[in-house]
Hints:
The protein is α/β, with parallel strands linked by helices. The chain is built from ten helices and eleven strands. The protein is globular and about 60 Å long.
Amino acid sequence: xTARIIDGNALSARVRGEIAVRAAALTAxxxxxxxxxxxxxxxxxxxxxxxxxxxxCEKAGIRSLRFDYxxxxxxxxxxxxxxxxNADPAVHGILVQLPLPPQFDEAAVxxxxxxxxxxxxxxxxNVGRLSQNRESFIPCTPHGVMKMLETVDVKVAGTExxxxxxxxxxxxPMAMLLTNAGATVTVCHSRTRDLAFHTRRxxxxxxxxGKPRFVTGDMIKPGAVxxxxxxxxxxxxxxAGKLCGDVDFESAKEVAGVIxxxxxxxxxMTITMLLENTVISAERAASxxxxxxxx
Length: 295
Ligand code: NAD
């Protein structure tokens, strides 16, 4: 059996097209969606992520503002910019690219963002709302995974889902979303004793580990849906320098029913969901404005 492959690039292009239509409709109402992106320091990967986010905004008709700070930036200066962006009604989304340099208290910075503009969904209040299955901004990567499951018609309710990884940005919100959708969820991590025991039971397996080709075909239940969030660069061997996921795609695709590739799987969906969250925020702002004007 060879698994059906979910094409994250194609899905992303389709969803971004829908987002561009919503952005244009908002702009016609006088509310152009706007995302402010803050980059502190000179981490090369962060610089690439920020550039990709800004370019994706432009293509979708979303205005973007970019604020760059040096590695030795004064946290007070960044916090003061955040306060100004919170107060600016023309700004609908605020994103602080992580990681931040050591002089910053990351949690304090994330919590300084107005929760109505927290399009990354990392503010503790948004995390709490997600855990209670209430309206919130959903972190972009796990949100993208749910969108992928939806488009391939995977019925999540009643399934056994296993998430490998317990980070705040992927593993934990992923587990919450799957729980909210009715799956029975097991979260595995670096201290899990018998990983394969859990993965072999999974109807839906999501990997967010950061270890190249770590999950092999023999760890997968036949017919399972395998979503690979990992993005790793191979250091040696014939494929040195190439990107790969946490899943050994070649062996896994012979066992799984549905699988995502790396690159071209979950990766493009992350920025897509950031654009969607920004548009959602702008739609809420436009409705609030109309309500206040008695429209
Ligand atoms: P992280 O380092 O914060 O978390 C990794 C998790 O893997 C930890 O919870 C750890 O307990 C677990 N883990 C480590 N070794 C393990 C082992 N041997 N067995 C079981 N669990 C183990 O990483 P993260 O930020 O959650 O990212 C995970 C991966 O996803 C990385 O490759 C990252 O690049 C990628 N990522 C991709 C996107 C995207 O847009 N597709 C977004 C965010 C992260």
